[in-house]
From TrEMBL:
Enzyme Commission number: 3.6.1.9
Name of the protein in its database record: dTTP/UTP pyrophosphatase
Stated role: Nucleoside triphosphate pyrophosphatase that hydrolyzes dTTP and UTP. May have a dual role in cell division arrest and in preventing the incorporation of modified nucleotides into cellular nucleic acids.
Lineage per the UniProt record: Bacteria, Pseudomonadati, Pseudomonadota, Alphaproteobacteria, Sphingomonadales
Residues annotated as the enzyme's active site: 71
Length: 192
């Protein structure tokens, strides 16, 4: 049996970069078109897992392909924080996160050649320092956190504003590598 090909169900350059860290290059990239709106009363962990599974299922898969999808959700308690679509939203999100701990929930789903879906979820606790208005404005002006869940990117300038991380740093970026590698191996993807 030939080695399977990997389809990454994400257009995120961060996920491609993270996979490269473990020596994985997707054969194909396919960005799933799904509704990412939270369901009424949906909790963050259930939301992240549902999205990862939905993204994986939304991508067409050939018989020799494995599909990998992920979702990273930022939550403050039971509240799911949206991506920062504009600077005003980003300021609001950073204000909510300032001086507080929050959770980054990373869910991944791998569908193997037989159509079996395997999932893992990792929750990482992140704490920002208390942010001054000048720090918020400087970060917003950098443009870095736009489009990102919670309004920040830990792999960039925001890392200097974070005083505490407990869990998977790569999971906060977008793909927990330890769990991703384990799922790919379980699905029959060859890794060294």
């Amino acid at each position: 049996m030939t080695a399977p090909s990997l389809v990454l169900a994400s257009s995120s350059p961060r996920r491609r970069d993270l996979l490269a860290r473990i020596g994985v290059t997707p054969t194909r990239i396919s960005s799933p078109d799904i509704d990412e709106s939270p369901l009424k009363g949906e909790l963050p962990r259930a939301y992240a897992l549902r999205l990862a599974q939905a993204k994986a299922a939304a991508v067409a898969r050939a018989p020799d392909e494995i599909v990998l999808a992920g979702d990273t959700t930022v939550a403050l308690g039971r509240r799911i924080l949206p991506p920062a679509e504009d600077e005003q939203t980003q300021r609001k999100l950073l204000g909510l996160l300032s001086g507080r701990r929050h959770s980054c929930i990373s869910a991944i789903c791998v569908i193997d050649r037989m159509g079996t879906a395997r999932t893992r979820m990792v929750e990482t606790v992140v704490a920002f320092k208390r942010l001054s208005e000048a720090e918020v404005e400087a970060y917003v002006a950098s443009g870095e956190g736009l489009g990102k869940a919670g309004g920040y990117a830990i792999q960039g300038r925001a890392e200097a504003l974070i005083r505490f991380v407990a869990g998977s740093h790569s999971g906060v970026i977008g793909l927990p590598l330890f769990e991703t590698r384990a799922l790919l191996l379980a699905a029959g993807y060859p890794l060294g």
